[in-house]
Amino acid sequence: MLLFQTIIPAVIVFLIFIFGHFFISSSGSGLYVSEINIEIDETLDLAEDVNPMDIDPSTGLILPDKYNYLKIENVFSGKLVGSEKLFSIEVALLTKQPTISSDLFIAALAEMEADLVAEITKVILEVTYEQLSALDGRAKLTRAIHDHLNKYLAEEKDMFPGVTSVFITNLNIV
Hints:
By secondary structure, the chain is of the alpha+beta class. 42% of the residues lie in helices and 19% in strands. The chain has 5 helices and 4 strands; from the N terminus they run αβββααααβ. Strands 1, 2, 3 and 4 form a 4-stranded antiparallel sheet that branches. Strand 2 and strand 3 (86-98) form a beta hairpin. Helix 3 packs across helix 5. The longest helix is centred in the N-terminal third of the chain and has 22 residues, at 2-23.
């Protein structure tokens, strides 16, 4: 009985499949597609803002963007302006660039970390308790660090100002 329940339906399905493929026209069914000729233009017109290093040599396509960050190892600390309280801040820099550029940019920032520490220190010299205790104050502080570092990279170091965001990774007020 089991043999009858499995073999007979399998044979019927197989026969219907053969009948369908040999005797029914399949144009437009999506199963049989005529060959499509795709012409690929071998020349790649680079936009002026695309770095040739960001092009994948095997495919010729621009590499996808990648987030990469550098945690500044220095802990910035000092006395808050207008208060007797002390603070400490740790900062991380984020960039979003094509894969290879992102890695090279972070490596270049790591090499000049001492200069970056000096520039960040210039921004946080006049920080107040109200600025660090409020969310919008911290956002303004990170924006000021971001703008100052990008300006420094562009003007002083003649580099691409690629710092996308600045994050306060640790904040203590005592």
